[in-house]
Amino acid sequence: MEAKKEIEVATERDAEVVLQVAGEGGNGGKEEGRAAMDVSSRSRRVAALDAFRGLTIVMMILVDDAGGAYEKIDHSPWNGCTLADFVMPFFLFIVGVAIALALKRITQVSAAVKKIVIRTLKLLLWGLILQGGYSHAPDDLSYGVDMKKIRWIFGCVAFVVYMATTYALYVPDWSFVFHREGDVNDGKRFVVKCGVRGNLDPACNAVGYVDRAVWGINHLYTQPVWIRSKGHSERLKHWLLMGFGLLICGITLHFTNAIPLNKQLYSFSYVCFTAGSAGIVLSAFYAMIDVWGIRTPFLWLEWVGMNAMLVFVMAAQGIFPAFVNGWYYETPDNSLVHWIQRHVFVKVWHSERLGMLLYVLFAEIVFWAVVAGILHKLGLYWKL
């Protein structure tokens, strides 16, 4: 199925990923602080991330294995957005959130780069193992154009444009007004002498000149490039404002026929709509689980999310059913999986569609949620 082909095996338990919950702290000694950190590490872990990741894996299994019987949960043929069309954006969203939280705890750039490189190599290895190696998709997406013959032309053009801009573009003198309250130079205008080509210094390089000419100097960041909110209300206000803003933007563009929702084209409205939906769902999970403490109904999603790698490989990629189907009596149709599908679900409910849906819900999703819960109790996790 399409969702299986798109998903990268990029999940891990993120055991070290935590947020500083509002109100935490203390003035105890160092040893007391370490003990408190060990005891409260589970409470400080953002359970909403695990629940959201688990929801994404569950959606993936559902749409891959039951989507063929129900059009409403399968991928939209062209314009529109169904349940299956949320899987990939939700996955990318939670991966981005987890990466930001994980890397903010690594203060050394070299350590962060090392972690990224190692993780990338692991993902490439697992991608080759699970997806069968080289993908021939580029040859099928040429739309009548021989991409093999012209792709190097595009690469050469991009290289020439980059080199010409960097080394041949003339950078004139430019000025700026310094603003810092209380400073003796506040309000003064300073002139930066350039008048050069090919300079790679911070003040006179061509890239900075293009940025200033297009966006203006005020677009440059002088402080940290993201806002870190420590309180629950501040986080939720920020997340919900962005989520609803993107959601409304996507809906407006779609229903005014300006830019329809289209997953195949990854249209701007589709990106806004799914990203906004992901932000709202994460905010809802965060409010219910981490703020209000309503964890019991979502524990099974947390279990799946904490062992997302295992559930993805075994269930969503079909490794476990394929292994079980390898053991059969006389014909491949006489395997345990096929027997359960026919006799426990399809024949009992007298419906192929309903039977397959119930099989996916109970024999796959519930089964792997229970397995993930048992592994969680044992402290066993599969992570990269």
Automatic annotation (TrEMBL):
<keyword id="KW-0812">Transmembrane</keyword>
<feature type="transmembrane region" description="Helical">
    <location>
        <begin position="238"/>
        <end position="256"/>
    </location>
</feature>
<feature type="domain" description="Heparan-alpha-glucosaminide N-acetyltransferase catalytic">
    <location>
        <begin position="45"/>
        <end position="131"/>
    </location>
</feature>
<feature type="transmembrane region" description="Helical">
    <location>
        <begin position="150"/>
        <end position="170"/>
    </location>
</feature>
<feature type="transmembrane region" description="Helical">
    <location>
        <begin position="356"/>
        <end position="375"/>
    </location>
</feature>
<feature type="transmembrane region" description="Helical">
    <location>
        <begin position="83"/>
        <end position="104"/>
    </location>
</feature>
<dbReference type="Pfam" id="PF07786">
    <property type="entry name" value="HGSNAT_cat"/>
</dbReference>
<keyword id="KW-1133">Transmembrane helix</keyword>
<dbReference type="InterPro" id="IPR012429">
    <property type="entry name" value="HGSNAT_cat"/>
</dbReference>
<feature type="transmembrane region" description="Helical">
    <location>
        <begin position="300"/>
        <end position="324"/>
    </location>
</feature>
<protein>
    <recommendedName>
        <fullName>Heparan-alpha-glucosaminide N-acetyltransferase catalytic domain-containing protein</fullName>
    </recommendedName>
</protein>
<feature type="transmembrane region" description="Helical">
    <location>
        <begin position="268"/>
        <end position="288"/>
    </location>
</feature>
<feature type="transmembrane region" description="Helical">
    <location>
        <begin position="46"/>
        <end position="63"/>
    </location>
</feature>
<keyword id="KW-0472">Membrane</keyword>
<feature type="transmembrane region" description="Helical">
    <location>
        <begin position="116"/>
        <end position="134"/>
    </location>
</feature>
